Sequence to fold (576 residues):
Amino acid sequence: MRPGRQLAVLGFIFVVLYLLVFFSGGASGGWKDRLEPRLGLDLVGGTRLTLEATNTVDGKPPTSANLEEARQIIENRVNAFGVAEAEVVTEGNRNIVISLPGQNRDLTNVGEAAELRFRKVLKATDGSGAAAAPTPSATPSAAAPSPSASAEPVPQSVEQQRKAIEQKVGAAAWAAASGLQAPADLTADPSLADRLKPFGTLSPQEIAVLPVGMQFNVPTITCAQLDDRPAASIKDENQQAVACESGAKYLLDKAKVLGTDVDDANAVLDQTSSWVVSLNFTGKGQEKWTALTREAFNNEGQACDQTALGQDGKCRVAVVLDNEIVSSPEIQGVLTGDSQITGSFDNKSANALASQLRYGALPVTFEPQEQQNVTATLGDSHLKAGLLAAGIGMLLVIIYSFFYYRLLGSVIFLSLVLSALLVFGALVVLGRSIGFTLTLAGIAGMIVSLGVAADSFVIYFERLKDEIREGRSPRSAVPRAWIRARRTIISANAITLMSAVVLYIVSVGAVKGFAFALGLATVLDLLVVFLFRHPIMTMFARTRAFLSPRVSGLGRALPARSAESGSARNPRVKEA
Fold:
């Protein structure tokens, strides 16, 4: 065995790890700032957002089952930020409260409905509120019937809201808007512009309950109003819808592919190094997607208007998330495989969209009520007390190790120091890369791992004494003791690691952080066992100090060996 090689590998790991600590992405400020791990909500405070569930379509409050399902989905979305130990809890019968470590975190998107729909674009018109030019399909045809105000069956509560809006804008304006069969040309009829002007004063909430045809055909209803409609305003996949993209207002067909048809979503870089969201469909979802692209490519079903065609004369399919069009690509062929959502994405926005699609749509709609920065739930005194207790415990272990094992105690001391440095460096790097935050629960997990590390020392050193008692010299006993103790050490650490993995999978919040910290410290302890403890013991066995019972800590074992063998080959060996 060549212990120098193993020590060199350990040194290389330390160099790489601390190069990442000081110079990897996210490292900034002075040297002290770069050594700071990411701390949790209970230590440094964070951001808290309250979401209030609105009534369902039939006007009833959400059920407890819906609220719990929404809580789990939101928790999955928040956890997609990394191992951040977020707290997501229900409050009362309507609210969900999200607490995430770190000040000024943007949590507004985690409560969005994320209703994904794939709809063919039927018509397009200007959505800026300017005069609309006549379109080639001003006269409705059988192939592309224009939606009308009376064609949609609506719940009574929506009908009542429409009556209130009719009174607000006036009977003349309502009648003029209801009679439109295509986007109005206000330049040709100035009086019509005056009659439709009140629709430009409606709020986004009022715009959301208007008939689809009215939203599209009235030029004074702008994209600014449409984009600000409440979440899930166009949730019904069996109705046509209106949405905007880049200032253009689109009339969209019924949704032929839904978000539930998407099996997985991931943010990836395409061949042009642009961020896109890659979609993998389910079996039936793939069939629906293929049928939709075939319909759009061949202009089947409801034909697209000239205003809605792409540059190649083919229909476009809009990818609609909630009320907004994420992308409206031209369909240049029948797609029989997975697809991508393209748009003006960066890394953050692409991952956020993929996270929303991956974890599904919320069963109820939420309105953000309050987002605020909160202070640490535990003061500095609590943190200092916890760290002091950990330091005292470690100090007692080291003192006892030197008292009982003497020279071997230095191996224990150095191993614990190296393990601590590895764990600390890993915490800093993981905090920047996956968002891991250190809380008191995580500190507790690392303290527990010290007990596992101490057990491995006891196993090895006591096995070494057994080898010496059986008649072997200290130098030959070291490799044999390692072979016999190695399996036990691996088994003990493997059990601890499996417990940490199971606890991490089934737990949430602070308990998940405890399990992660315990598993991380256990893995790094095994690394120190194989790359430091065993090779350094091999090197110690070659020194004169190791052969001295008073120095090595083997004094209780060496006389026992001599007495059992009846040998006087080493009369100078005395019990320590």
Remarks:
- Residues 131-155, 560-576 have pLDDT under 50 and may be disordered.
- DSSP finds 20 helices and 13 strands in the chain.
- The two ends are 31 Å apart (CA to CA).
- Residues 474-506 form the longest helix (33 residues).
